[in-house]
């Protein structure tokens, strides 16, 4: 929990000293380890902003706050217990609300994390992130960083200045998990509210609740007891999870992929409109198991026949969307936002129809 002095400092306007989002200029802000303990693992914390770094005008305000207002140095100062479980090194990578995270930021972040984890110095990585798009960043990292070392993405549902802020304990649990040898070989993970989830399957299920990140069908990987991780299973990875190497991808080099939302009387012209606006692939969030209207289906078939791959997903929270044909594909268990990332990375890797048909529908 924040001390009274630290809360006073937050309200005094420390955030005003922060520069523009670090991912857009060449030198990142780095807080090096202040007290090194050779018996503890080295954990690098990449801060990107979000509610966990949010600041409000009063301690009872949990909406309408400024996301990404506080720097990684403040987050580390607020949780001195981090130094009991690790040698934490903070990197201010960005400081924005998670809706401002772009494909360019994700490619840049992946490239930095891969280099960090390739070093024998670093035993694990934590990424602090806003919750609105946290699952997308976590999924992206799960598919693009090749490592056995833990990658943990963490956020908060209440700003740092709230009277019962969840950020400090979430951050401590995330770093504790990243420092635990039992966390190796599990892919990227998401930590909030004492839960450990697979980045591949987890999604945000409630706009306001602390207990929002869930994989309803697949379940959690584990939980925390007295801030110690407890796993349900031996290390394993999701069936069919691919890997995409973006180490040589230009930061702004990912192709545009757009999502179309399904509803009664949907506008079929939106499919062609998205392609005309630059989309190299489409994902449809269909009612039921990826269904679509007849006029809409005709429009989808037209753009697919002209070379634009289309993935059918579902707008409902859970479910499986099966096989399609003729340059269209079922998303399997992936929701629309994760299907978009999968298709974007596959197109960047040069996948064509035959390869895409093996990639989806798991």
From TrEMBL:
EC number: 3.5.1.1
Pfam families for this protein: Asparaginase, Asparaginase_C
Database matches in InterPro entries: AsnASE_II, Asp/glu_Ase-like_sf, Asparaginase/glutaminase-like, Asparaginase/glutaminase_AS1, Asparaginase/glutaminase_AS2, Asparaginase_C, L-asparaginase_C, L-asparaginase_N
Catalytic machinery residues: 51, 51 (o-isoaspartyl threonine intermediate), 131
Transmembrane annotation, as ranges: none
Sample GO molecular function, one term: asparaginase activity
GO terms under biological process: L-asparagine catabolic process
Catalytic activity: L-asparagine + H2O = L-aspartate + NH4(+)
Binding locations of substrate: 98, 131-132
Keyword terms, alphabetized: Hydrolase, Signal
Name used for this protein in its record: asparaginase
């Amino acid at each position: 929990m924040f001390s009274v002095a630290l809360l006073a400092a937050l309200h005094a306007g420390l955030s005003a000293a922060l520069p523009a989002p670090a991912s857009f200029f060449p030198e990142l802000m780095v807080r090096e380890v202040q007290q090194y303990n050779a018996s503890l693992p080295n954990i690098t914390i990449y801060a990107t902003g979000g509610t966990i770094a949010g600041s409000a005008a009063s301690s009872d305000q949990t909406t309408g706050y400024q996301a990404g207002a506080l720097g990684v140095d403040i987050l580390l100062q607020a949780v001195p217990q981090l130094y009991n479980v690790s040698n934490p090194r903070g990197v201010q990578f960005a400081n924005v609300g998670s809706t401002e995270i772009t494909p360019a930021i994700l490619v840049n972040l992946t490239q930095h994390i891969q280099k960090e984890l390739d070093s024998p110095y670093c035993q694990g990585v934590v990424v602090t992130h806003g919750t609105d798009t946290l699952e997308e960043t976590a999924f992206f990292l799960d598919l693009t960083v090749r490592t056995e070392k833990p990658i943990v993405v963490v956020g908060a549902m209440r700003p740092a200045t709230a009277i019962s802020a969840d950020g400090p304990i979430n951050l401590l649990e995330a770093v504790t998990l990243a420092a635990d040898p039992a966390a190796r070989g599990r892919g990227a993970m998401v930590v909030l509210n004492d839960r450990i989830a697979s980045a591949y399957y987890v999604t945000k299920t409630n706009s306001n609740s602390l207990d929002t990140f869930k994989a309803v069908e697949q379940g959690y990987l584990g939980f925390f007891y007295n801030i110690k991780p407890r796993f349900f299973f031996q290390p394993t990875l999701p069936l069919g999870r691919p890997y995409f190497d973006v180490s040589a991808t230009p930061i702004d080099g990912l192709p545009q992929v757009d999502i179309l939302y399904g509803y009664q009387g949907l506008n079929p012209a939106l499919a062609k409109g998205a392609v005309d606006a630059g989309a190299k692939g489409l994902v449809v969030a269909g009612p039921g198991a990826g269904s679509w209207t007849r006029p809409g289906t005709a429009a989808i078939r037209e753009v697919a026949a002209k070379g634009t791959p289309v993935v059918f997903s579902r707008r409902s929270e859970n479910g499986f969307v099966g096989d399609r044909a003729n340059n269209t594909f079922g998303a399997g268990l992936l929701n629309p936002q994760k299907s978009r990332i999968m298709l974007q990375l596959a197109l960047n890797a040069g996948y064509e129809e035959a390869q895409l048909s093996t990639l989806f529908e798991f």
